[in-house]
């Protein structure tokens, strides 16, 4: 499957999150501890928001993240207060640039770890459920991108949690109609440039790993000597497929069948249930 990071908070160089931590996303591309595969080398992508742009910038490639010079160059020169990064382990679709995450439409970005079970059998029915006005913008062949466009069809830009719930319900209904057990496995991150939503759900109730960072002011109390905590705001938060280090008290598991919102002011955590 895949590994990903969503960062929101004080603008930082991408390299500070992608390369510097002890168990950074780049380290996870070779030595994942909690993924289905140890190695995630079937492409990568980063997407970041800047103050004056109407859409996020996206850099995607088909090779592994650990030796990509363009990623290294960009990460050491681009600073952002909200960005996504994803390393891919294909579940059967082609390794090509259009299949690397994150996916983008307008202000929105989407990335996913997981799979639609039996996707080759369900793909036609699910594709026909996409709004015909949106369909021409599907570029790749992954279940992840199709899930994004199904959520867009279901009203993502007006009601992100409701749209993802309706997308999940559709995937499960179509899967069950084709006698596919436990059709959906997903940890999803999406953003509009102001907020980040993160979802953890699977039909079988044993979802892929997902963690969020402890509030910065609490971490400062726990670790007053940690220099990097002095330079970031109380609003800074990370959502990750697996922890980036072993700092005690820094990471919290996202509960099964739930979603969180990282936003200005208090963040929120809610239960998640697909809508039939």
Brief summary of the model shown:
This protein has 276 residues and is α+β, with helices and mostly antiparallel strands.
- Which blocks of ≥5 consecutive residues have pLDDT under 50? none
Number of strands: 13
In whole angstroms, the N-to-C terminal distance is: 26 Å
- Quick one: biggest sheet? 7 strands, antiparallel
List the helices and strands in order: EHHEEHEEEHHHEEEHEEEE
User: Measured on Cα atoms, how large is the radius of gyration?
Assistant: 18 Å
CATH topology: Glutamine Phosphoribosylpyrophosphate, subunit 1, domain 1
Percentage beta strand: 25-35%
Tally of discrete structural domains: 1
Secondary structure tally, helices: 7
Strand order of the largest sheet: 3-2-4-1-10-9-11
CATH architecture: 4-Layer Sandwich
Mean pLDDT over the residues? 94
Shape: globular
Overall helicity: 10-25%
CATH class, named Alpha Beta
Structural class: alpha+beta
CATH superfamily: Aminohydrolase, N-terminal nucleophile (Ntn) domain
């Amino acid at each position: 499957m895949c590994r990903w990071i969503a960062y929101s908070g004080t603008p930082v160089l991408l390299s500070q999150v992608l390369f510097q931590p002890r168990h950074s996303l780049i380290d996870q591309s070779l030595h994942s501890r909690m993924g289905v595969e140890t190695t995630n080398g079937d492409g990568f992508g980063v997407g970041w928001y800047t103050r004056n742009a109407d859409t996020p910038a996206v850099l995607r490639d088909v090779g592994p993240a650990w030796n990509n010079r363009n990623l290294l160059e960009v990460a050491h020169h681009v600073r952002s207060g909200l960005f996504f990064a994803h390393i891919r382990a294909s579940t059967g679709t082609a390794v090509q640039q259009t299949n690397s995450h994150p996916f983008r439409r307008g202000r929105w970005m989407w990335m996913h770890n997981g799979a639609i079970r039996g996707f080759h059998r369900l793909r036609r029915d699910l594709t026909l459920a996409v709004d015909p006005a949106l369909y021409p913008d599907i570029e790749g062949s992954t279940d992840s991108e199709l899930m994004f466009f199904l959520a867009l069809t279901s009203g993502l830009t007006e009601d992100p949690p409701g749209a993802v719930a309706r997308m999940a319900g559709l995937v499960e209904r179509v899967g069950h109609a084709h006698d596919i057990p436990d059709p959906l496995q997903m940890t999803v991150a999406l953003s509009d440039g102001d907020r980040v939503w993160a979802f953890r759900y699977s039909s079988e109730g044993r979802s892929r790993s997902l963690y969020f960072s402890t509030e910065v002011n609490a971490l400062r109390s726990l670790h007053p000597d940690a220099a990097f905590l002095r330079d970031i705001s109380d609003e800074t938060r990370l959502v990750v497929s697996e922890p980036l280090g072993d700092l005690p008290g820094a990471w919290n598991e996202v509960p099964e069948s739930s979603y969180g919102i990282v936003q200005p002011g208090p963040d929120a955590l809610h239960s998640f249930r697909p809508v039939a």
